[in-house]
Amino acid sequence: MTDRTGRVTCDITISADGYSAGLNQTEERPFGDDGGDGSGDKLHAWMFETPDENRAEIDQIAAARAFIMGRNMFGPVRGPWDRDRRWNGWWGDNPPFHAPVFVLTHHPREPQPMDGGTTFLFVTDGIASALAQAREAAGDGDVAIHGGATTINQYLSAGLIDELRLHIVPLTLGAGTRLFEGVPPLNLEQVRSRPASLVTHVTYRVLSGPV
Amino acid sequence: MTDRTGRVTCDITISADGYSAGLNQTEERPFGDDGGDGSGDKLHAWMFETPDENRAEIDQIAAARAFIMGRNMFGPVRGPWDRDRRWNGWWGDNPPFHAPVFVLTHHPREPQPMDGGTTFLFVTDGIASALAQAREAAGDGDVAIHGGATTINQYLSAGLIDELRLHIVPLTLGAGTRLFEGVPPLNLEQVRSRPASLVTHVTYRVLSGPV
């Protein structure tokens, strides 16, 4: 096993009331009632409308050497994987990860290599196992808990995230999937905070997990 | 009636997960399980430990010409006002408001003048009436909805707040009184955002209220 020097990081875009997605998510509207058309366009306007201004934060998201995501973030399909209608994520043939992506699921599936260095690997034995595998794959690089909020909340509750990078955007959703929902109190250190025109970026170090 | 040019503002300090106070509030621990001793000291460390750095935000809180607060913020006493044990707020003989403070309550009470220009006035006919009275008192100045979060959420739900100034601090509480709880979706404009060492200040203009 590689000596671990990398961190476990997490970037997440949230509304001012802490939601990363709205209610009523569907395949056509993966972000549900998100204040826009369900595509997450309003939540992520800072990335798509003002990318130059937010270059450092965007590049940082892609810098991890391994990623972990929940199955709901990987795709809308549920139950056993369908061999006839193969779902390989939302991101096309060349996903932006360029690294191993560990997908939490209850249903086994063979690894799925993609173009550009991304491989989706399917983990059926829980979040700790996924993290151990991702750390091994990342070597001395960072592992990113990519989302969604339900998966991030599981890792926060387990005290397994070192650095949490919030991208807080100017709308509220009122309901949906909320970051920190059900997570016991955390002691944080604000290590960076930067305003941009459509977002406020705040980076916290998690000093101590749930007690 | 004075021509109104003032705004309705709201300053509130919240944890990274959106709480302004924890569970189990008591007279001795008005902020409950707040990550500290219940006095709100950890939530408000930015005001008390680094006041020079946050002078503009602190001065801004006091700049309103009339204030509105919920009875729970005014004090821990419940039910009809006790003439023998008169509660005049948490702030001593010379409260920091130096202006009329309208307290929402179900129980009538005569106005209570204090030193330094503060007068506590008790409003029994609801939030709209309190705002109308506060606007009249403020003239062309701002009216501040001073809290707590439950009162602020009522005003947000009614579409009656123009400017919301969040002071987001590096801890989570996990439970308690949460800003935006039960408030329908809001469309906001981020008008200012400023980092300081123990807090991130974010000011939103409320573009449209609940639809």
In helices, the fraction of residues of chain A equals: 10-25%
| Whole-number count of domains of chain A | 1
Oligomer state equals homodimer
The proportion of strand residues of chain A reads 25-35%
Molecular structure report:
Two copies of one chain form a homodimer. Chain A has one domain: Dihydrofolate Reductase, subunit A. The first copy, chain A, is 18% helix and 28% strand. Chain A has five helices and eleven strands; from the N terminus they run E-E-H-H-E-H-E-E-E-H-E-H-E-E-E-E. The first copy, chain A, has a nine-stranded mixed β-sheet with strand order 5-6-4-3-7-1-8-11-10. A two-stranded antiparallel ribbon of chain A has the order 2-9. In chain A, strand 5 and strand 6 form a beta hairpin. Chain A is globular. The two termini of chain A are 29 Å apart. At the A-B interface, strand 8, strand 10 and strand 11 of A face strand 8, strand 10 and strand 11 of B.
Outline the fold blueprint.
2 copies of one chain form a homodimer.
Chain A: E1 8-15, E2 19-21, H1 45-48, H2 55-62, E3 66-70, H3 71-74, E4 100-104, E5 112-113, E6 119-123, H4 127-138, E7 143-147, H5 149-157, E8 163-169, E9 177-178, E10 187-195, E11 200-208
Parallel strand pairs in A: 1-7, 1-8, 3-4, 3-7, 4-6
Antiparallel strand pairs in A: 2-9, 5-6, 8-11, 10-11
